[in-house]
Write a structure and sequence with these properties.
Rossmann fold, alpha/beta, 7 strands
Length: 229
């Protein structure tokens, strides 16, 4: 796992953002640039889940905050649950679940395997267009798209599959997701699968929202409002 401090100014409150599979700093930078002054949180960004372990020094730094809030998108939802974090208060799952390779609660296993086997430059563009919900938002997304190669992303996806299949051997985290934000037009994690996966916790469904949610919720404040209900 790669971790980067987006903001570290000694605030008492910490926001931890777990990005989706295949991403880098582009989306986090976009969200930060749209966040108005006075947000009042230090911000830690996590991505690249070939290893789900968060380093000991980062875990120690996280433990020093009085209030710890977590936002996780897509495969970042599962990765957040495996990172070894403690003391998380509010936690928002955005278009992802704790069982990401699943017929009932995530991506059907056969679909996942086909995506992995056929992942090349052409299929990457096709996947990202589907993720964004159409050609126009895909063009907008290209301005913040990850600067990672196809082979690099495929290697992460293969590691994720292997780790998810071993998921039952790991201890569950000591904290739980408190809220779920669900895209009604999500073509990666279906809204039905997410709704079933998050039964029993507070859910907010945005009917027209695709898998990529950050043109609908484009800064940290807007995402945090989903945990106020």
């Amino acid at each position: 796992m790669i971790t980067r401090w987006i903001e570290r100014k000694g605030h008492e409150r910490l926001l931890i953002f777990f990005n989706g599979w295949g991403m880098d700093s582009g989306i986090a930078g976009f969200l930060q640039s749209n966040t108005t002054a006075g947000f009042g949180h230090d911000i830690l960004h996590c991505y690249d889940y070939r290893s789900t372990a968060m380093s000991a020094d980062v875990l120690d730094a996280v433990a020093g905050y009085g209030e710890r809030t977590l936002i996780a998108w897509s495969f970042g939802v599962w990765a957040a649950s495996r990172a070894g974090l403690e003391g998380i208060g509010r936690a928002l799952a955005v278009n992802g679940t704790l069982h990401p390779v699943s017929d009932e609660e995530g991506i059907p296993p056969e679909m996942f395997r086909v995506t992995l086997e056929r992942y090349d430059e052409e299929n990457r563009r096709r996947f990202m267009r589907r993720m964004c919900g159409g050609t126009d938002p895909f063009r907008q997304f290209l301005g913040i798209a990850p600067e990672r190669g196809v082979d690099d992303q495929r290697a992460e996806l293969a590691a994720l599959l292997q780790n998810v299949l071993q998921n039952g051997k790991d201890e569950p985290p000591s904290w739980s997701f408190t809220h779920a934000l669900i895209g009604g037009r999500d073509l990666i994690f279906s809204a039905a699968a997410q709704g079933f996966a998050w039964r029993g916790i507070k859910q907010k469904t945005v009917n027209g929202m695709p898998h990529f949610p950050f043109f609908e919720f484009s800064n940290w404040q807007e995402l945090c409002t989903c945990m106020e209900e």
